[in-house]
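Quick start: what a row looks like.
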Amino acid sequence: MSLIKNLSPQLQACLVRYGELQPCTNAFIDARSPGSDKKENFTIIGPGVAENPHQHVHIRELHGFNIGGARQPPGCTNSLHSHDSEEVFIIHQGTWRFFWGEHGDAGEVVLKPGDTISIPIHIFRGFENVGHDVGFMFAVLGGDDPGRVHWAPHVIEKARGFGLILLDDGSLVDTTVGEVVPADATAVEPSSRADVAYIREPCVEEMIANVVRHETLAADTAKANRSALGESLSGLVTESIIDSVIIGPAKIADTFLLAPISKPHGFSLRHLRLQAGAQTTMHVLECAEVLMIHRGRIIWRNNLQESVELTVGDTFTVPTGMARQIEAIGDAEIFIVLGGDAPQPMHMMLLRAA
């Protein structure tokens, strides 16, 4: 059973358990189209991009980025669409095929648990669970307002006749549950050729350059982390904790930490691998920080004797400026989203003894 000791109401509101995620099964216009009608969408932090105004938002506080989730059974596809902000997927469970191009035939790449892909703006992209079990992945979108989804023209065409109508204000009407299109509203029509002229179709090499494989994280960064940071971390990164940068500046402060994806996103992404019993020094961050537990269990605590046990699939956002510490109960892995393109490195804000 998960452990919560003296967690204030403020911090309880910062926690979203995986088992308590509230899905929406008609979040987007394609949610009734054959092949896409079994998906579940989640809005975890921020307003998100769901078209259904009834989509549950777990944490509404603005972070400078949005975090959502997608859960799909084998064979279920999310239709081709584009965003006006960078979209990053972190594979939590399952095997997923990402494809792109107006008709999904410009290229594809397959990702597995722990893999990350960053998809640039103005590219029609879709994804499918090609594994044998239900899959789940986190999605991170830059900005407080990530804008609206722009669907490939054929997606709008395919959705006709299945009860979901997208309006020009970006909202969705579900006629199967008795909703009606307002008299002063206009339904969205498939985009013209001119309307989609700005959409790019990148080559496979460009998209693969935006993929970071799980198995490369520790192998590529452990030696650099230790040689560059050494004793200055005072326990934040040690032989039992490996801090890997996935998205961030090409060079972080005066260290040798290199981000394999260095273009601006409005947020950065890191990965911590902790051995059983490892713990960070109590430290402070002056930016938004969201923890997503990929594997194992950890104890999060602050300097006010508050603590909480976090386990696989949980999401926890830490208030800016609050002292915090992480301890691994067993071997654990955490993905961490930090606000800003170049947040101050964690080790620079360790609490020093008086």
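That is the whole record. The first helix runs from residue 9 to 12. The chain is about 10% helix and 35% strand.
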